[in-house]
Amino acid sequence: MSARLVGDVAIWLDTPAALGLTPAERLVLMIIAERANEQSRRMWRYRSDESTLHDLLARRVGVSSGQLTRILGRLSRRGLEVRVPLKYDRRGRPVYGRRGHACDFQLPELPTTVTLPPRANPCGQPGPDVPGGSR
């Protein structure tokens, strides 16, 4: 268990980069952080676990296996790929799990956002996005 990673995720969830994450997506990140190794950021499976990590995540989030797969896909589209690829197919697409090989999970690097200053009009006149500009 990595309290530091859980703390990092909790702080990151308060940033603008986490806006729009659903409660289920947030919970998946927290559960992975709670079970992740601090150095490798990979989720651990304990000997006492009676199910795969995918089933454990689904049970703890309170969703079905298919719903968890959709949640993982949404996280991936946001740039938060938590699944560890087993291999890549002929087209170069990642394969995350297959019969006989369960999917592994890792906590990704959490992205930050940058707020850019308002853009000025090239003619030197204030534009609509600059205070004092026309609307």
Automatic annotation (TrEMBL):
InterPro entries hit by this protein: WH-like_DNA-bd_sf, WH_DNA-bd_sf
Start and end residues of each stretch annotated as Disordered: 115-135
SUPFAM superfamilies in the cross-refs: Winged helix' DNA-binding domain (SSF46785)
Superkingdom assignment: Bacteria
Name of this chain's protein: MarR family transcriptional regulator
Lineage, uppermost ranks: Bacteria, Bacillati, Actinomycetota, Actinomycetes, Streptosporangiales
